[in-house]
Each structure stands twice: as C-alpha cells, then as structure tokens.
Write a structure and sequence with these properties.
Blueprint lengths: L1 H28 L1 H12 L3 H40 L21 H10 L2 H10 L2
Helix pairs in contact: 1-3, 2-3
Length: 130
C-alpha cells in the first residue's frame, strides 16, 4: 500500500504543478484584461491607476509564482518518496531512477496493484472472453 500511496502523491503533486503553471501562463497573458477590470473596480480613470495597478499585478504574479515553486518542491519530494517506495517511472517523469538495476517495479508494487483491482470484474471479463 505504501507504493500506491506514493504513486498517488506523485500524481497529485504533478497535477498541482501543472495547474499552477496553467494559472501562471493565463496570468501572464491577461495583463490588459486584469488592468481594465481593476480600473472598473476602482471607479477611477485609467490614467490615475496605472502605477497603482502595476504593484497589484506584480503581487498577483509573485503569489502565483510562489505557488508554482511550492508545487515543484512538493513534486520533487513526492518523487523521492516514490523512489524509496519502489514506484516505477511514469511516462512523463523526468528522473531516471527506474533505469538503475534493482529499482523500478518490485514485488510490493505488483502485489499492491493486484490487491487494488476488482477481481469480480476481471473474472467476469475473462469468462466472457473464453
């Protein structure tokens, strides 16, 4: 079970990072939209809020960047735990720890996968295909 939990954490941290990167990309592409929304919210003329908004804009970007940095750290930690638990590399995983002899798939991982499957579903499928 430790192996499955570690693999799940890698997936969760990877998704958190991907989500953060999407938010960062959207943020970077939406300066004009954010600026106009800010002007509208403030109820001021656009000329009077340009420098004010610049500070707000950069603070928003900094917060999103910090979340991405934390997600990167979380993913790195999850990958280390997964390596120690014997989880094999995912297709999109950058590290190469499964290429080292003795690492990667192990008996605990196979047993955990087998234990987590729906045996009735598999047996029914096998009977239908006999």
């Amino acid at each position: 079970m430790q192996c499955l939990k570690a693999a799940r954490r890698v997936r969760e941290e990877d998704e958190r990072l991907k989500s953060g990167l999407r938010k960062l990309e959207a943020y970077e592409r939406s300066y004009t939209k954010q600026y106009h929304e800010y002007v509208q919210q403030q109820g001021k003329l656009a000329d009077n809020v340009a420098s004010e908004f610049t500070e707000v804009y950069f603070l928003r970007g900094w917060e999103i960047s910090q979340a991405v940095t934390e997600a990167e750290k979380g993913l790195e930690e999850a990958r280390k735990l997964a390596k120690n638990a014997g989880v094999p590399n995912a297709d999109d995983q950058e590290s190469e720890f499964a290429s080292v002899p003795g690492e990667g798939y192990d008996d605990e991982y196979h047993e955990a996968c087998i234990d987590s499957c729906d045996r009735g579903l598999v047996e029914g499928w096998l009977r239908r295909n006999d």
